[in-house]
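hiii so um. not sure if this is the right channel but i have a protein structure encoded as tokens and i wanna go backwards to a sequence. like what aa goes where. can anyone help
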């Protein structure tokens, strides 16, 4: 293999395509998030009481109507049941262009309705579809089309995340790699797509996630690294619990064969959870800073309840036909668990527990440990030394779940049925966006 792969014309062609693809994908991501933000601000109150049963009962009507619209849109727009989610799109470097716009519309209604999902799916789906469309127009070969699709995904979320470098690392870490040279050929176009997508969003918004979950700084001590290993184990358990909950609720939801009824009941259930635990409403981006500020007022067990309720709300959203990204809600689960852990064990600094669990839960769940470790330093605002325990936690969680399979025996044993709970990789449940199992009528 030549060390001068960058001198090959086939290296520079995707880099050139990444510029217009990144710009268009960044514009699409910006349009989606801006529209969701404006519409959400009109429907939902700015100030929410995060205490138990602090939600408003009229939320039930709004979430149920939202679920009804999700179901109707899926029928009218013929959104297929077995459509790939954002994570699977990245893993395969492919987006179905025919279903992209219908799924983005369903995602818009899903987020507007208070579903426990985020904009990641729409950003990657729009960007990937743009990359595929450009490839088809210019007659690109299949290998170049895959790279262009990933460049578009980078552009779609380059401005949504804290940094274009983080977006590139996340996409490349989760994307397919056919040998070391293919991996290196993907990196440059992905980064170019991220930078130009970031440029579009930054030009209009002028803000990112940088420091959004700010906490008091702390001095790192040797014993914090041992604590980080324990926090990583907690994150691994939460990751498995999330996947198992999605699997079980998806199995129950599949018994409801009518798409509209299933989504409506899902919306109503999301509303019930939100009324009981208001912090579970929506993606969690705005709610997590509130939990940090209100840690003393809310109390330990309410915070633990929020973590478990968010897992249930996210599982309901994924299992009943709502469409959206799993990254932000999973970050919320980890961050809320970090706040709850500090409330339970005050001797553990909040910055330690928050930064470790914030990134370790999604790091294990979506199989992107390095991206999540970088995210800790950028979003929590801790320094390069203080972020080291977070790196230990995310690697621990990743190794326990993916490398060693610890906690995979929540439902032990094997059967001949490939769909049986005993044979399911719970992490993979997050890859199935808005799907149900064994539903012949959809």
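sure thing!! here u go:
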């Amino acid at each position: 293999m030549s060390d001068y792969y960058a001198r090959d014309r086939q290296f520079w062609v995707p880099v050139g395509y990444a510029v217009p693809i990144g710009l268009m994908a960044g514009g699409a991501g910006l349009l989606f998030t801006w529209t969701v933000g404006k519409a959400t601000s009109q429907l939902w109150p700015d100030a929410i009481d995060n205490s138990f049963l602090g939600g408003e009962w009229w939320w039930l009507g709004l979430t149920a109507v939202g679920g009804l619209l999700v179901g109707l849109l899926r029928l009218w727009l013929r959104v297929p049941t077995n459509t790939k989610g954002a994570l699977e799109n990245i893993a395969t470097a492919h987006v179905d262009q025919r279903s992209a716009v219908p799924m983005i519309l369903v995602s818009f209604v899903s987020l507007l309705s208070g579903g426990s999902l985020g904009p990641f799916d729409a950003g990657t789906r729009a960007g990937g579809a743009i990359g595929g469309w450009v490839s088809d127009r210019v007659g690109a070969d299949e290998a170049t089309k895959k790279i262009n699709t990933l460049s578009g995904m980078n552009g779609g979320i380059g401005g949504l995340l804290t940094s274009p470098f983080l977006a590139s690392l996340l996409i490349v870490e989760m994307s397919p790699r056919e040998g070391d040279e293919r991996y290196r050929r993907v990196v440059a176009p992905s980064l170019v797509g991220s930078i130009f997508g970031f440029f579009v969003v930054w030009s209009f918004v002028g803000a990112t996630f940088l420091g959004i979950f700010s906490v008091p700084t702390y001095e790192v001590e040797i014993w914090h690294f041992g604590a980080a290993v324990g926090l990583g184990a907690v994150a691994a358990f939460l990751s498995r619990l999330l996947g198992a909950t999605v699997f079980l609720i998806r199995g129950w939801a599949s018994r409801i064969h009518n798409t509209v009824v299933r989504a409506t009941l899902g919306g109503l259930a999301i509303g019930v959870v939100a009324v009981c635990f208001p912090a579970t409403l929506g993606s969690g981006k705005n709610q997590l800073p509130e939990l940090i500020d209100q840690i003393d007022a809310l109390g330990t067990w309410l915070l633990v309840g929020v973590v478990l309720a968010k897992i249930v709300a996210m599982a309901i959203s994924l299992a009943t036909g709502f469409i959206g990204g799993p990254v932000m809600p999973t970050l919320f689960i980890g961050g809320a668990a970090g706040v709850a852990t500090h409330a339970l064990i005050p001797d553990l600094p909040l910055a330690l527990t928050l930064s470790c669990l914030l990134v370790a839960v999604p790091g294990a769940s979506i199989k992107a440990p390095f991206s999540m470790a970088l995210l800790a330093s950028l979003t929590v605002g801790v320094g390069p030394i203080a972020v080291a325990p977070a790196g230990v936690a995310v690697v621990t969680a990743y190794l326990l779940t993916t490398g060693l399979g610890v906690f995979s025996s929540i439902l032990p044993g094997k059967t001949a049925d490939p769909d049986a709970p005993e044979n399911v990789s719970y992490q993979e449940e997050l890859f199935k966006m808005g799907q149900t199992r064994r539903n012949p009528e959809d």
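oh and Residues 124 and 153 are 4 Å apart (CA to CA).
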